[in-house]
Structure formats: structure tokens, C-alpha cells
Amino acid sequence: MKGDYHQYLAEFKAGDERKTAAEEMMLAYKAAQDIAQADLAPTHPIRLGLALNFSLFYYEILNSSEKAYSMSKQAFEEAIAELDTLGEESYKDSTLIMQLLRDNLSLWTSDMQTIGLRCTNIHGFEDL
Question: For the 14-3-3 domain, which residue ranges apply (predicted)?
Fold first, then answer.
């Protein structure tokens, strides 16, 4: 949540204030990611939501399509690999977030093709 708070600030700030908010956001998201990867299953909705928000930070705030794409792709693929272990209570939430990750992957694949970057689609085949 701390990362999300700083993301909202960064979206509306400019100059040094935007840079400071982005730095705080990076620290918060990185700390949360370390905890999530150590303590939560790849299919856990909180871990997936964090990956979604952190990848959007890279895409929207840092303008890093490649990093956003790779982060989303990794989270999606790790979750797909363990989808059969997903409990019924979190299935709906997890699959909804996975769909959002996949939607972003499709969008960012298109963006990266437009600017001439190579990317591997979610099925493992290289585009371009």
C-alpha cells in the first residue's frame, strides 16, 4: 500500500517531487516484493496484485516497457505453473489479476513491437 500511495503522488507531481515519490515507491515495492516472493505462493492474490502494480510503476512512471513486460511475464508464468494448487477461495481473485497481467502483456507486446524491441510472448515464442 505504501508503494501505491507514492505512485499516486508521482502521477500528479513534477520535477524533484515526482523523483522523490518514484524513489520512495521503488523502495516500498521492492521491499514488498521481497516479502511476497519469500512468503506467498505465486498464485496468491496479494503477490499477483503487487506484481501488477509494480509492473505498472515501471511502465507508467519509469517508462520502462521492457522491465514492466518481464516482471508481468514472470509473475504470470509462475502463477500458471501453480494454478492447479490454487484454493477455491482465492481462485476468482487470482485469475482476475492474472487476466489483467495478461492484458498488459498483450498491450506492452504491441507497444514494444511498435518501437522495435524484441519480446517473447506468454507462450514462449519470440515476436518480431
Answer: 1-124
CA distances from 21 to 32, 51, 59 (A): 16, 19, 15
pLDDT of residue 6: 62
**Cell 522523490 sits on residue:** 20
Of 119, 115, 19, nearest in space to 74 by CA? 119
127 pLDDT more than 50 = no
2-114 is a CATH 1.10.10.10 domain: no
CA 109 to CA 66: how far, in whole Å? 9
Q: In the chain, where are the structural domains located?
A: 2-114
The torsion angles phi and psi of 126, rounded to 5 degrees, stand at -80, 130
**Does residue 94 contact residue 81 with C-beta atoms inside 8 Å?**
no
pLDDT at 113: 74
At how many degrees (to 10) do helices 15-39 and 45-56 cross? 150
Burial letters 69-84, b for 16+ CB under 10 A, else e: bbbbbebbebbeeeee
Are 61 and 25 in contact, with CB atoms under 8 Å apart? yes
